[in-house]
Design a protein that fits this description.
Blueprint (H helix, E strand, L loop, with lengths): L1 E7 L4 E10 L2 E10 L7 H4 L4 H21 L3 E6 L1 H5 L3 H12 L4 E2 L2 H13 L9 E6 L4 E6 L4 E7 L3 H5 L10 H25 L3 E5 L1 H13 L12 E3 H12 L20 H14 L4 E4 L4 H13 L12 H12 L4 H17 L1 H4 L3 H13 L11 H12 L6 H12 L11 H5 L2 H19 L8 E8 L3 E8 L4 H9 L2 H7 L2 E6 L1
Parallel strand pairs: 1-4, 4-5, 6-9, 9-11, 13-14
Antiparallel strand pairs: 1-2, 2-3, 6-7, 7-8, 10-11, 12-13
Length: 510
């Protein structure tokens, strides 16, 4: 069996092709990497540049051609921070679907952290240790901690080399004042996660990703180490990384590639990666880091093999049959269950706080809950029409525990969680009874806002608070981090609820 995994990253687009030997054992037979820098400028403009958009499509098309020539059985794709946060990220994925037939999955930062840890655990012998893993990407840094059996902590921090680069618009030298500002920013963003990490405790720190591996190898070589055949499992001292970072900061961009281990395409941001890595290692109070050459794409392969080698879902046992069947359906179609649970929670908060307007009870509340838990399963078939595919899958699967009426309404709600609003111009909607049409209009309006409030798929929005007046429904949004994209996405889709409730809907920061 041959599998390909394409990681559509913020800095680089990677592909590996593997020959599967056993559940957790495979040989990599092809590796491809192109530093497209999809995220260049994204964190300042919230848009993929035309150059990055076109180059990214061209690279993915080339990868697919290669994978097909090699004869792979399946191509697994995942998109991360830049696509999550770019307003035209969905347009980019739609073009990927149209031109290649792939259906990339946008994964959350927490899911990215989980997959990274699977890869690290399969590449570094942890023995009886608890490992803390850092992965510095272009748009985010994943921090995940665990042992051979369990993941104990995972988080995604909005700290990446291209995101930091956008803080310095001229992309010129970072002086002492700029370095201090940058270190203070890193400390502010990372402190809460670091406090949790230190409270749990760990035995060693492992670093993966191109940025950390490049810094580690360059620091190792600059300190007098011999050339490495593979950086995997090599340990690098913090003081050597500090010295390298200082040297990079004093070196002009054009000359940074003179450091062995630093590629020319990393010279614009590698010094910022050094500042970030040194600061994180200092905050967790360690003196060295172990390098790992496996990362997200290997984790994607391992995750695929685990899921397809077991018939029993990995979700915890649940006495509620309908919840259990929804979880099994989500797993079967490779949906992000924790993310969908978060969307469901936001949707139910909105439902409960607007009950005086819609007057619905437990029956309708359950419809909203399960439509939120299953809204995106259609991405398994195709990203481009995933809302319609979700309806198709639910109707076809006919999960046990649900009545025909519930299946009809849940599948219809998933169809209207995005894209076109429900209208009598749609034949299937027109065939619904008037009470059912009203349920779909109101609940799909609530669902759309909940989905929008998790636009970046990082579960940043924690709660909503609704204030109702004669003419307006005001929704105050509270959470952590920058919520601009979440609020923008929810505002974009508020018209369905506004029309259903006959009120203006305003969505704003709490």
């Amino acid at each position: 069996m041959k599998l390909a995994a394409i990681d559509i990253g913020t800095n680089s687009i990677h592909m590996i092709i593997v020959e599967v030997l056993a559940q957790r054992n495979f040989d990599v037979i092809e590796r491809e990497k192109e530093m497209v820098k999809l995220g260049s400028g994204v964190f300042a403009t919230h848009r993929l540049s035309d150059r990055a958009f076109d180059n990214g499509l061209e690279v993915i098309q080339r990868y697919v051609q290669l994978a097909e020539q090699v004869g792979v059985d399946e191509i697994i794709t995942a998109a991360t921070s830049a696509i999550r946060e770019a307003q035209n990220g969905e347009a980019f994925l739609s073009q990927v679907v149209r031109q290649t037939g792939l259906a990339p999955r946008i994964i959350s930062g927490r899911e990215e952290a989980r997959l990274i840890f699977l890869a690290v655990r399969n590449s570094i012998a942890l023995e009886d240790e608890t490992a803390l893993v850092f992965d510095i990407g272009g748009g985010s840094t994943e921090a995940v901690m665990g042992d051979r059996q369990n993941i104990l902590f995972r988080d995604s921090l909005p700290l990446g080399v291209l995101r930091l680069l956008d803080m310095f618009e001229d992309k010129g030298p970072v002086g002492s004042e700029g370095r201090h500002v940058l270190e203070s920013h890193i400390e502010f963003v990372a402190q809460q996660a670091i406090d949790q990490i230190r409270e749990i405790g760990f035995d060693r720190v492992i670093g993966t990703s191109g940025t950390i591996r490049s810094l580690g190898e360059a620091a190792y070589l600059e300190s007098g180490g011999d050339s490495l055949q593979s950086v995997n499992a090599e340990t690098v001292r913090l003081k050597d990384i500090k010295r390298l970072t200082d040297d990079l900061l004093e070196t002009k961009v054009a000359k940074r590639a003179k450091f062995e281990g630093i590629s020319e395409k990393r010279t614009d941001a590698i010094h910022l990666g050094g500042i970030l890595l040194v600061k994180l290692l200092t905050m967790v109070d360690v003196k060295e880091i172990t390098l790992c050459d496996a990362s997200l794409r290997e984790g994607m392969i391992l995750d695929y093999l685990e899921r397809h080698s077991q018939e029993v879902p990995s979700f915890p046992d649940e006495t509620n049959l309908r919840y259990r069947k929804a979880a099994q359906l989500a797993q079967k179609y490779e949906s992000d269950w924790p993310r969908n649970e978060h969307v469901a929670d936001l949707a139910l908060q909105l439902f409960d706080q607007t009950q005086t307007l819609h007057g619905y009870g437990e029956f309708e509340r359950d419809l909203l809950r399960f439509s939120a838990l299953l809204h995106d399963i259609g991405q398994f078939i195709s990203y481009q029409k995933h809302h319609k595919n979700s309806r198709y899958i639910i109707n076809r699967e006919n999960p046990r525990g649900f009545t025909d009426e519930e299946i009809l309404l849940i599948s219809t709600l998933t169809r209207y969680h995005c894209k076109a609003a429900p209208t009598k111009q749609h034949k299937r909607f027109r065939k619904l009874s008037k009470p059912h049409r009203q349920i779909v209009q109101i609940l799909s309006g609530l669902l759309r806002i909940a989905v929008g409030l998790d636009k970046t798929k990082n579960q940043r929005v924690k709660s909503v608070s609704c204030e109702i007046s004669a003419e307006t429904l005001a929704i105050a949004v509270a959470g952590h981090g920058n919520l601009d994209l979440e609020i923008w996405a929810a505002q974009r889709d508020r018209h369905v609820l506004a029309e259903a409730l006959e009120r203006d809907v305003d969505i704003h920061f709490a």
